[in-house]
Amino acid sequence: MIQLVERVGKILGAFTHEHPELTLTECAERSGLTKSSTHRILLSMQEVGLVERETMGWRLGTRVVSLAAIRLGHLDLRREAVTRLHELRRTFRAATAFSVPHGADMIYVERQESPEPFAASARLGAVAPIWAGASGRAILAQLNPAVRHAVLDVPEWHHLPHNTRKEVLDSIEWAAEHGYSVDPGAFFEGISGVAVAIRDAHGHPVAALSVILPPGRLQSLELAIMGSRLREAAEELESLMGYGAMDRTDQELSTSPV
Predict the structure, then answer these.
(1) 257 pLDDT exceeds 60?
(2) Distance between CA 115 and CA 128 in Å, rounded?
(3) Could you write out the DSSP letters of every residue in 70-114?
(4) Contacts of 223 (CB under 8 A, 6+ apart)
(5) Is 196 found in the same domain as 133?
(6) pTM of the full predicted structure?
(7) In this predicted structure, what is the pLDDT of residue 119?
(8) How many domains does the chain have?
């Protein structure tokens, strides 16, 4: 029975965002099973709705979608983020925040105060232009150029000086390349930060984690270390959201014994 469950897991792991439909041969090759075993298991999985037969092959069934919906429906991303905010606060001895995009703005819905006295923080419920801080730029960095342009197509953005807009766009491109964004404090006096976006199951940015600190501290910190730790925390939350789950399952199960 355990071996059968492992084989079912291997077959489920064969389907990815890049390969949502597979022929029998592809499914067998990607799962590391024989074609005859793969075919028998697929037929059994089809009976309970885990896979569906297509003209040229197989795809995940509606049962998988309904199970995912149940899981995601009971996920409180905001609550899950609080644990990571506490960890980041202790690690970097700085204020931390969880924010969500709303049109051309970011809304700060959770925060943890810095253990350092007189340190920068983020007011709970505060609203800031999406381009003005690290959190918003982390979100923008995960959008394709057309969507990004649409989000920024508001009067407040167009009223900014050309050089300021160029600096912001350059920082967004930098964030897209490095996986985290950095705000030296250009818009908010005495406040700088580092942030990462959190993506849902479809890869769309739905929230951001940020570390907030005075600009003087930002200059003395290893940004790569902070960015890496933020990215790890975001990936933990993304895993709960279902982003990249099939890809990770495929990689993990490919090393398991058949």
Answers:
(1) no
(2) 24
(3) HHHHT--HHHHHHHHHHHHHHHHTSEEEEEEEETTEEEEEEEE--
(4) 182, 194
(5) yes
(6) 0.66
(7) 58
(8) 2
